[in-house]
Amino acid sequence: MNSIIGKKLGMTRIFDESGKDRPVTVIAAGPCTVSQVKTEERDGYQAVQLAFGERKASSTNKPLLGHFQKAGIKPARVIKEFRTTADHKPGDVISVDIFAVGDSVKVKGVSKGRGFTGVMKRHGFHGGRASHGKSNQLRAGGSVGASSDPSRVFPGKRMPGQSGNVRRSVTNLKVVKVDPEKNQLFVLGAVPGPRNGTVYLTKQS
Fold first, then answer.
1. Measured between alpha carbons, how far is 70 from 205 in angstroms, rounded to an integer?
2. Which of 88, 153, 161, 204 has the greatest number of beta carbons closer than 10 A?
């Protein structure tokens, strides 16, 4: 198994052998429990479904509760399916020790939601000049039209709107430290999402 579900704890820094400080993201990776195994004969493809986190049985709907009971595990907060040919059975535990220092991982997560934002925050526009009578157009996007021909705004125009809260993937993040006792993984650089956000890690070859 080369994938796991985790929770982003935040960022800090550690010092390498040469004494340089490196920005790292701390991820609580696992432990995850196998809740279902998909096979080529029964489902048409091979995959393993992992369950992560804790959830009260009283807060779990009946279909999910039956799903967890069939696997013989406790209700979980997050379930995610990973394509793999690894041989597992329901109830197996996947922990952070599947990773080693020096591994490259791909991290998927949902970026921070910024709400409805203007063009300066959303797209990095520099804004209008603060002189020659410009009093209320400092952060405006400027003209968006294209004269009487074609008399419309082209699709894809960079304008104000919803910013963030989208799925993002960051590849080739290097593992710099593994702490099996605390189930923590330290990866070099930033990963998508806020603190305590759910992330999905996959080892890259």
1. 34
2. 88
